[in-house]
Design brief:
Blueprint lengths: L15 E3 L9 E12 L2 E9 L4 H17 L7 H7 L6 E2 L5 H13 L9 H7 L11 H7 L8 E4 L4 E4 L12 H15 L5 E5 L2 E5 L10 E6 L8 E7 L2 E7 L4 E4 L2 E4 L14 E8 L2 H14 L1 H9 L5 E6 L3 E4 L8 E2 L6 E2 L6
Parallel strand pairs: 16-18
Antiparallel strand pairs: 1-9, 2-3, 3-7, 4-6, 5-6, 7-8, 8-11, 9-10, 10-17, 11-14, 12-13, 14-15, 15-16
Pfam families: ApbE
Membrane topology: Lipid-anchor
Function: Flavin transferase that catalyzes the transfer of the FMN moiety of FAD and its covalent binding to the hydroxyl group of a threonine residue in a target flavoprotein.
């Protein structure tokens, strides 16, 4: 894991843009209490529409900082840093805040091992895409690092809440689900403080809480960012409430070497970025940590296999944007997703895949 002041290397940079809001009822404000801070290497924004709940904003950002400090490497008290430093040496006890995140990362690594591995750190550390020192490693470096990438060399003890990386040089990189986990924790805090209507946005991990505050509307209207364009350009929109929206895309962070472009979503088996026809995958789910984990895992499967897998999941939908400017949606979005006619994209036919 790269020793930096940022959150552990984020494999996932979701790209979802909120489009609409409004006011409804005497208990909600027309304009939300809103705050934005630059944390974890990204912009974090929380908007609360409930009257007399402005004080909850501070609590929300305090919670983000508390969790980030425990997950961020090269920070005093960083638990992930301590785990990596003790790889091949001894197990490390984790707090109640961090162990559930590590446990979920292990579960995703088990279920989607060809596309998700919590020990991808040695690979992402070498490439470091998205940072000034990004580079394409030599093949010999990648070959040397790949034996250190294997979640089966991770030992967890649920009773003691400990983790042990068996080989020296192994490194956790939980960036594929860290922002989702923190998003979910902020939502829990809002609900505990009786907030009914809010938006939580951790660098693109968006959660819309409650009904839309817009008069006469139950659902929020949420725009899906075009992964091929700058922010605030949408390919379409969906309506949603009490849900998370997360996207994995290849153009937000990349590295070009000798005319070849490499994105930041890495195959743990090869040490190189995944190579398929997908430009971006948006996941709509009940929890943001699952949107995070699935967006990376589904991206790795490619278009057809990814769509087929989504159809077998409960309460999960997906939007795929391809390199040839087509959009494919899961069956649950057929009557929901509205394409932006000016986007230059067209809806693909799933049966043609």
């Amino acid at each position: 894991m790269r020793k930096s002041k940022y959150l552990i290397s984020l494999l996932l940079l979701p790209i979802v843009l909120l489009v609409a809001c409004g006011s409804k009822g005497a208990s909600l404000n027309q304009q939300p209490y809103s705050e934005q801070q630059f944390l974890m290497g990204t912009y974090v924004r929380v908007q609360i529409y409930d009257n007399d709940k402005e004080d909850v904003l501070k609590k929300a950002f305090d919670r983000v900082k508390e969790l980030a400090d425990k997950i961020t490497v090269s920070e005093p008290g960083s638990e992930i840093d301590k785990v990596n430093d003790n790889a091949g040496i001894k197990s490390v006890e984790l707090s109640d805040d961090v162990y559930p995140l590590v446990k979920r990362a292990y579960e995703y690594s088990e279920e989607y091992e060809t596309g998700f591995d919590m020990t991808i750190g040695p690979i992402t550390k070498m490439w470091h895409i998205g940072f000034d020192d990004a580079r394409k490693p030599a093949q010999s470096e990648i070959d040397a690092a790949l034996p250190l990438v294997d979640h089966k060399d991770v030992e967890l003890d649920d009773e003691k809440q400990t983790i042990f990386l068996k080989k020296k040089g192994m490194e956790l990189d939980l960036g594929a689900i860290a922002k989702g986990y923190i998003t979910d924790e902020v939502v829990k805090l809002l609900q505990k403080n009786d907030v009914t209507t809010a938006i939580v946005d951790l660098g693109g991990n968006v959660y819309v809480l409650g009904d839309s505050p817009k008069e006469g509307k139950e659902y929020w209207k949420v725009g899906i960012q075009d992964p091929n364009q700058a922010r605030n350009t949408v390919v379409g929109s969906v309506t949603s409430k009490n849900q998370s929206l997360v996207t994995s895309g290849i153009y937000e962070r990349n590295l070009t070497v000798n005319g070849e472009t490499f994105h930041h979503l890495f195959n743990p088996k090869t040490g190189y970025p995944f190579d398929n026809k997908i430009a971006g995958v948006s996941i709509i789910s009940q929890k943001s940590i699952d949107g995070d984990g699935l967006s990376t895992s589904i991206f790795s499967m490619g278009l057809k296999e990814g769509l087929d897998h989504i159809e077998g999941l409960k309460d999960v939908e997906a939007i795929f944007v391809t390199l040839d400017n087509k959009i494919y949606i899961s069956s649950g979005l057929v009557d929901n997703f509205k394409i932006n006619k000016e986007s230059g994209y067209s809806l693909g036919n799933n049966s043609d895949l």
